[in-house]
Amino acid sequence: MSDRREVTLVEARWVSVLRAVGVPLLSVLLAVGIGSLILLAGGYDPLKAYAALFQGAFGGEMRKPLEAIGDTLVRSTPLMFTGLAVGFGFRANLFNIGAEGQFILGALGAAWFGLMFGGLPGFVSIPLILLGAALFGAAWAFIPALLKAKTGAHEVITTMMFSWIALYLTSWIISGPLADSATNNFQTPIIPSDSWLPTLDKVIPWLPTIKYAHAGLIVALAAAVVVALLLRRTTLGYEVRAVGFNPTAAQNGGVSIAMTTIWALCISGALAGLAGASEVLGVTHRMFDQVSAGSGYGFTGIAVALLGKKHPVGIIFAALLFGGLSAGAGTMQLFANVPAKIITILQALIIFFVGAETLVTWFVKRRQRMALEREEAADAQ
Amino acid sequence: MPVLELRAITKVFPGVRANDRVSLTLERGEIVALLGENGAGKSTLMNVAYGLLAADGGEVLVDDVPVRIKTPRDAIEHGIGMVHQHFMLVEPLTVTENIILGHEPARFGVLDRKKARMRVAELSNEYGLKVDPDARVGDLSVGMQQRVEILKALFQGARILILDEPTAVLTPQEVRELFGVIRSLVKAGLSVVLITHKLDEVMGAADRIVVMRDGRVVGETTPAQTDQIGLARMMVGRDVVLRIEKAEAHPGGPVLRLTDLVVKGERGLEALKGVSLAVRAGEILGIAGVDGNGQTELVEAIVGLRRPKSGTIALKGVDITRASTRKTIAAGVSHVPEDRHRRGLVLEFDLAENLILGDHRMPPFAKFGITNPRVISVTARKRIEDYDVRAPSEHVLAGALSGGNQQKLVLARELGREPELLVAAQPTRGLDVGAIEFVHRRLIAERDNGTAILLVSMELEEVMSLSDRILVMYGGRVVAEFAAHEADVERIGYYMTGGKPPEIAPATMTASGGAV
User: Fold this and answer.
1) Would you tell me which CATH number, out of the four given (3.90.1150.10, 3.40.50.300, 3.40.1130.10, 3.20.20.70), belongs to the domain B4-236?
2) Which helix (DSSP H) or strand (DSSP E) does residue B163 occupy?
3) Residue extents of the structural domains in chain B
4) Cβ <8 Å between B346 and A250
5) What residues are paired with B257 via a beta bridge?
């Protein structure tokens, strides 16, 4: 009995690793498959469409590789941050659906601090600006966190409401106090170029010049490492995971659910705020109305966190995939005449299948059982 | 001709063969006890017979005819009824409404209340299952609710009744009444399968005993042919000490002292109405009582999970009445919670992570908020060995362990930090004989080590065999105190139900006390 049990335990570990990687991969493949059917139904050639999509994201005849990859990286970078943000919340069993609002606040903070510290050299001003933006994001998550901890108000409702408040509040700020007097658009002035995030090849000298790509990517990767260490190697991370898995047991072990909730949501907000800062310092160099609303980095971050299975490494890859999809969409439209909106369908399908993990595991389990039965039948003979 | 026969039932769960070609017969008018440790496969087998689980092999015969039972409804149609350990009743509805639920007698599509009520009353009289047909189920005691479940099965026409651990939640008096009911059922021609792991019940009530271990039937016997020791050996597969040996306690000074403690319960009512007690170093103070008489609130108040309304809690003279759980742990209070899945462990954490819960902020496990995986692993390995937790490594998830090993893990953590006071709530609930023996030995050893232990248990047998002093709780108050040597089941049982023993207040003696 005990031998049998040990084997089962070792198997269980493998199964959990396989499932963590396998289910998202399978979901992507299924989405691509069903996407083909949709393309066929629309009268398009799926092979041609996917080829264009791939080249648009990673380069080929239709698009220069360094340009395609740069585009993918630039679109992935904010998704890495927002994916990490939402994923961190998930770890504490919190659904920070309002990463969008924290993103906007982070972007606003970056523009504001950028204009304030812009005169300082980059190595001084950039860390200061990033820190300020993270604080802005965290502050925006703090009120919903406090409401959750003290009154039990559900974060899905409150963070969402705060997203809308963020949107209109920043609209007012950038059309009033921080407005760029040179235009009538809702936007801040450009921040001094000393405080822009440098391009990747400036930071890593041996790298070729990748178009668009900026050092925000490095900050995002560093954030993923920090999040992983935070979860694994600190008491705060321990408490966050304990509360996420089983709050009653955590409470029994002297963990304050209220404090852990507040910390987790604020860290989540800080990560989303960094996403906004990375966009402003690396791409737009100013805050303008709907800096994110067009692409909705905060909301896509939810999908990224789900596909990445809440794990920092998984989230990085999921962000690259979603960034690549969005980078390739233009090429697909241009060369295969497929509307770029098909990408939204693909993304939705991926999330659908990730969510339908239960269904997938059911299939796997059924196959395992059938194999076992065959084995038994063989034994019996 | 058997009324029910299970032939070579096999049921496989991923990684576990819960039933391996298990066969069982049940004759008309017979009580068969299905005995085995938790996880032996008893409930699985009966769930197959009742249509809750689909077997992977084997067949079910009713009256010698093979039948296909795919849902409980099929089972009911073939006259098989089951009363689960956790009742499946609708609390706001009345007894009658609950009993007819799903089989409502109707005339022209209109519920025939009168007929239903009459039928319920008939059944109730016929088998001595006295219960008020108009009472709201939520207002009934657990024992009464169980009667409703049995009546419900009878109403649906059950000739074969499966009772899954029916005595787990009952007082000694209620247990006796239940067995009276069971006897009148079989006298009337019904057949009963009694799933249990309690040896004394089996010896007293069963006609035949089938013992299961590791998914197989390992033996069949009758009460006349064996004794409790023999049954325990069959069940566990080795010799077991049923009653723990312990030396006289040598209590020191008081460690925990409660004074006039008033605590509100979940519904805002006072669940503790002024409790004063003291637990001394090196003694086990047992709290006996029927579930829901304030024990949970007592425990939660002591360990800092619930703020008392008034009164004081002092640990070695230091007031901890309003201390948080974290401070309470730091002050030297350990807690084995009554629900290890919900409160005791994080099942998704590995063993090492579980073993530091509560100490996870303290050196050497963490310094300046950074945890030390090496120290945590080394300590975990040592505790896993000390407490005989059967696991391949400290990085296995707690959820993958058996119930007994999970409880050992909780003990390893709570005793490993060398507390002044251990609050143990239902420390052996749901454990098998072997694991119960281990937990009991550890508690005694800890007592002999000078730790003060407050033991709360619904198992009167357990309270009586472990405690040096026993308090009985009823209605949020301590209603009686016994020294271990002067306690007896009968007298404690009376206090547990809010009465007084016959010799003190003869007026309260009723028919239910006459049986023994």
Assistant:
1) 3.40.50.300
2) strand B160-164
3) 4-236, 254-332+419-515
4) yes
5) B278, B314
Residue A357 has pLDDT above 80, yes or no: no
Strand pairing partners for B5? B25, B61
ipTM for this prediction: 0.84
B72 Cβ neighbours under 8 A, 6+ residues apart: B50, B51, B52, B82
Instruction: Please check whether residue B187 is in contact with residue B29, taking contact to mean a CB–CB distance below 8 angstroms.
Output: yes
pLDDT band at B241 (very low <50, low <70, confident <90, very high): low
The pTM score is 0.77
Do A235 and B348 count as a contact with CB atoms less than 8 A apart?
no
Domain count, chain A: 1
Q: Is residue A357 in a domain?
A: no
Interface of A with B in 248-307 (CB under 8 A): 248-256
Provide the residue range defining the domain that includes A169: 45-337
Residue A197 sits in a domain whose CATH number is 1.10.3470
For residue A234, give how far its alpha carbon lies from the nearest alpha carbon of chain B (Å).
4
Name the residue type at position A249. Answer: A
Nearest CB neighbour to B357, from listed A13, A253, A368: A253
Report the C-alpha gap between B226 and A373 in whole angstroms: 39
Whether A15 is in a domain gets the answer no
- A293 part of a folded domain: yes
pLDDT of the residue at B508: 41
Residues in chain B: 516
Phi, psi of B375 (to 5 degrees): -60, -40
Give residue for tokens 């040592």: B382
**Quick one: angle between helices A297-307 and A99-117, nearest 10?**
120
Class of domain B254-332+419-515: alpha beta
On whether the CB atoms of residues B178 and B170 are closer than 8 A, the answer is: yes
